[in-house]
Each structure stands twice: as structure tokens, then as C-alpha cells.
Design a protein that fits this description.
123 residues, 0% strand, globular, 76% helix, single chain, mainly alpha
């Protein structure tokens, strides 16, 4: 039982570190030829104008804004983009999925809290 908790917590922590503190999406997106679909090509053009522009910042500012009167799929898409750009939101949903997959949905907040602590403590 404790092993399940540790695996879930470490998995969530690993995904959060890889997503928010590396350039894995950019590197593999370009390697696999997904730059057009992930907006990497557009971001690189904008980055020439603003060298400090981060990919997640650009993604949220470009696709995370909900236009007035937008349809439900557009609203849901912008929610997903904003959620992927927030380590607390993404961490919570990852923790919920990890808790459900481990068979203990009650552990969601414990996994979430432990994963956030591990992210802050790591070197």
C-alpha cells in the first residue's frame, strides 16, 4: 500500500518536473516533426522578437484566451491549455489520475501535496 503511494507520488513529481522545468516538449516536438501541430514554429518566430518569451507563457497567451461567445469545444480547449500551463492545476489533475489508477482515489490530496513538496525540495 505504501509502495503504491510512493509510485504515484514519484510519478506525478517526475511528470511535473519534466513538463515545467525542461524543454522536453520542444525538443521531442521538433524531433518528431510536430512543430506545426504544437505551435513550436509560431513560438520560435515570436521568440525572435521577444527572446525571454517562454513556450508555456506563449501557449497560454495565444490559445488560452476564451473569445466572447465561444463555443463549448473552444472553451474546453482553452481550459486545457491554461491547465497545462499551471503547475498547481496540472499537478492536481495528475494526482487525481494517479490516485485513481493506484486504486485509492482518497489519496489525491496526499499525492498532490507530497509531489509539490518534492518539486520544491529537489536540488
Amino acid at each position: 500500500m505504501i509502495f503504491d503511494f510512493l509510485i504515484a507520488t514519484l510519478s506525478v513529481t517526475a511528470v511535473l518536473i519534466i513538463w515545467f522545468q525542461t524543454h522536453v516538449v520542444l525538443e521531442y516536438g521538433q524531433l518528431l516533426g510536430l512543430g506545426k501541430y504544437l505551435g513550436i514554429n509560431l513560438w520560435m518566430e515570436k521568440k525572435k522578437e521577444a527572446p525571454t518569451l517562454q513556450y508555456l507563457q506563449w501557449l497560454i497567451s495565444t490559445y488560452g484566451v476564451v473569445p466572447v461567445g465561444a463555443s463549448i469545444p473552444v472553451r474546453f480547449g482553452s481550459f486545457v491549455i491554461r491547465m497545462l500551463g499551471c503547475q498547481y492545476c496540472f499537478g492536481f489533475w495528475l494526482s487525481l489520475v494517479a490516485a485513481i489508477l493506484s486504486g485509492h482515489w482518497q489519496w489525491t490530496l496526499a499525492i498532490y501535496s507530497a509531489a509539490l513538496l518534492l518539486m520544491k525540495v529537489r536540488p
